Amino acid sequence: MGFKSVEDAAVAASLAMLLEVSANPKAGNVDREHEFEDLKYEHFLASSVASLPVFIEVAKRKKIGEGIYKAVKYSKNWYKATNVHFGAYLLLIPLLTAWDCKDVFEATRTAVENLKKTTFEDSILILRAFEICKARVMKTDELSLGSDKTEMELIDRKINVYEWMSKAPEENIIAKELTNGYKISLNGAEFILNSELDVNERIVFLYHYLLSKYLDPLVIAKAGIKKAEEVRSLAEKAIKSDNPFKKFKELDEKLISMNLNPGTIADLVISSIYLAIFKGWRF
């Protein structure tokens, strides 16, 4: 179906962020029913709304590195938390540069092509955005966001965003999504469009389905890969149970008690919602 204007695309991106955070229960993550001491439901609302003017600018100018940097910097003026939507921006900004495509397949292909056209200067702007929001990330051997050496390597080797993401480990599912054509998000969009559940339940079920399929990098960064595998297994059991939504609630309480929040899975839900809206989802 596509969008008729840059404003429509920008609204879709902000709406996707609002719908994701408002869906509950989402095991371990902020929603309408619970939050963390340093990360509140209202922080996500503020970030989602504050992102709108930047999203409009991105859709017009089609600048990926600049868009991610401005989204982080501007939205942070509206709340006191550290990282709120860094991962979501990494996924949404390239898609917004392809807002005027005819269908989602063309849009995702174009988003990847636009990533390939970035320069090392775009990579530096993303690094600057990370320094502002202080997102928790996995440690990597090469070009880690948390390494003091990364900036000089990006400059010296003139590594653009696509090349940078291509070097990420397999567990970095956002990086893989950006280089593999948004396969997870496309499947997520199809689920949203074809489900007969209500709006909240569609998003909640999709969240836990993705949690049952992929190791969350934020959980890996915080607690290690074995704990991430445990979370995935628990989500799979909940999905397959006779009463999934009851089990989702129980899993939510369990992950909160373990201080684990699979934030990357939430980011993929956001990009899935955006693509579903692109295809005409209304409710």
Structure summarized in a few sentences:
The chain is mainly α. The chain is built from 16 helices and no strands. The protein has a single domain, classed as Triphosphoribosyl-dephospho-CoA protein (Orthogonal Bundle).
Please tell me about this protein's structure.
This protein has 283 residues and is mainly alpha-helical. The protein has a single domain, classed as Orthogonal Bundle (Triphosphoribosyl-dephospho-CoA protein), CATH 1.10.4200.10. It is built from 16 helices and no strands. The protein has helices at 6-22, 41-50, 52-61, 64-75, 86-96, 104-116, 120-133, 150-156, 161-166, 173-179, 183-194, 199-213, 217-223, 225-240, 244-257, 263-278. Helix 5 (86-96) runs parallel beside helix 16 (263-278) and helix 13 (217-223) crosses helix 14 (225-240). The longest helix is centred in the N-terminal third of the chain and has 17 residues, at 6-22. The protein starts with 5 loop residues before the first helix and ends in a 5-residue tail after the last helix. The model has no long low-confidence stretch (mean pLDDT 95).
Write the layout of secondary structure elements.
Elements: H1 6-22, H2 41-50, H3 52-61, H4 64-75, H5 86-96, H6 104-116, H7 120-133, H8 150-156, H9 161-166, H10 173-179, H11 183-194, H12 199-213, H13 217-223, H14 225-240, H15 244-257, H16 263-278
Please tell me the CATH architecture by its name: Orthogonal Bundle
Q: How many extended strands?
A: 0
Extract low-pLDDT stretches: none
What structural class is derived from the secondary structure elements? mainly alpha
Termini, distance in Å?
15 Å
CATH topology, anyone?
Answer: Triphosphoribosyl-dephospho-CoA protein
Range of strand content: under 5%
Number of domains: 1
**Chain-averaged pLDDT:** 95
The CATH class name reads: Mainly Alpha
Sequence of secondary-structure elements: HHHHHHHHHHHHHHHH
CATH superfamily: Triphosphoribosyl-dephospho-CoA protein
Computed over alpha carbons, the radius of gyration is 18 Å
Report the biggest beta sheet as strand number plus sense, adding barrel if it closes. none
SS summary, helix count: 16
